[in-house]
């Protein structure tokens, strides 16, 4: 994408502001922009990969996370939750119950936030 953006920014028509909705279609050479040997980006890509995937190198221990999980009794009934209340009361009844509640209500937005970051 960097080569394409550089080609667009260097295009004389773009510099003049002579643009239309067919700008790219009229200039197919912009899509064939040459990619230079960008060693800096390769180093940054490597550092990003190591930072995210193995910040401390390979794990020194052969740990299986599944062995650390507590045993789960599947025959027990699922505890009451906000979702159960929503299904029982409906959206309006649930919202009223939430507004009438005196205790603090907390929600986890991690999944929503991560999804919006994509």
From TrEMBL:
GO molecular function term, any single one: pyruvate carboxylase activity
InterPro entries associated with the record: Aldolase_TIM, PCB-like
Region (Disordered): 55-86
Gene3D superfamilies in the record: Aldolase class I (3.20.20.70)
Domain of life according to the entry: Bacteria
Keywords tagged on the record: Ligase, Pyruvate
GO biological process: one example: gluconeogenesis
The EC number(s) this enzyme carries: 6.4.1.1
Gene Ontology cellular component list: cytoplasm
Keyword Ligase attached: yes
Top-tier EC class: ligase
Record-linked PANTHER family: PYRUVATE CARBOXYLASE (PTHR43778), PYRUVATE CARBOXYLASE, MITOCHONDRIAL (PTHR43778:SF2)
Protein name: Pyruvate carboxylase
Organism: Brevibacterium paucivorans
């Amino acid at each position: 994408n960097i080569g394409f953006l550089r080609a667009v920014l260097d295009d004389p028509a773009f510099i003049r502001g002579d643009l239309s909705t067919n700008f790219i279609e009229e200039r197919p050479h912009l899509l064939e922009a040459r990619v230079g040997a960008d060693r800096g980006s390769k180093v940054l890509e490597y550092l990003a990969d190591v930072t995210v995937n193995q910040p401390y190198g390979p794990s020194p221990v052969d740990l299986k996370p599944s062995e650390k999980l507590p045993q789960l009794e599947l025959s027990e009934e699922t505890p009451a939750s906000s979702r159960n209340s929503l299904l029982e009361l409906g959206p309006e009844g649930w919202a009223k119950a939430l507004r009438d509640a005196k205790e603090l209500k907390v929600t986890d937005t991690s999944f929503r936030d991560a999804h919006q970051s994509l």
